Amino acid sequence: MAITNTARINATVPDNPELYGPALAQIIKLEPGKEVLIGQAWLVDTNTLATCGHVVESYVQSPNTIVVKFPSSGNRYAVQQVSLHPSFVRQPDGLVKFDIAVLKVALAQPDASAQPLPLTYDQTLRVGQDIATVRYPVHLGVLTAVPQPLPQ
∠ CA 125-149-41 to the nearest 5 degrees? Predict the structure, then answer.
């Protein structure tokens, strides 16, 4: 689950977060005759995407039943491997701890050269600092008219 490019760790997010739009991907479950959007992933390194562990915990043994699609390019890729955080746990009350997973894929252009999102640890947010999240609120049963990321 290691991310090999440590230069991206603790990187500063630029003032224009739209630069990272091409790094965002949808996770799609393949079912007979249909596809189901189950979550969001983001590029963190070469051929490596991160997502919430609870989104993909059911696919660790069957990664071939999900694909990732990059809305910016329209390209889709088979997921080759799903790895949960070594301490991932779903507690009896449903609370999930260490809720992160890594997806391995073989990307083609232009997705292979998309700018990965920087990972940041142990940084304090300033009062009034702008932040942004991108999510698919599938768990709320709410999607926009087209299944695109919901920036806030």
Answer: 75
Q: What is the pLDDT along the chain (152 residues), one digit of tens a residue?
A: 444 444 444 455 555 656 778 888 999 999 899 989 998 899 999 999 999 999 999 999 999 999 999 998 999 999 999 999 999 999 898 888 999 999 999 999 999 999 888 666 667 777 777 665 555 554 444 444 444 444 43
CA 19 – CA 116 distance, rounded (Å)? 10
Task: Detail the DSSP E strand segments found in the chain.
Answer: 24-31, 34-45, 48-51, 66-69, 76-78, 81-84, 89-90, 96-97, 101-104, 134-135, 150-151
Distances (CA, A) of 97 to 40, 83, 88, 133: 18, 15, 6, 20
pTM of the predicted model, to two decimals?
Answer: 0.74
Give the CA angle between residues 63, 6, 9 to the nearest 5°: 90
Distance of CA 75 to the CA centre of its chain: 15
Judged by DSSP in three states, 79 sits in: coil
**CB–CB of 88/96 below 8 Å?**
yes
What are the tokens at 118? 């920087």
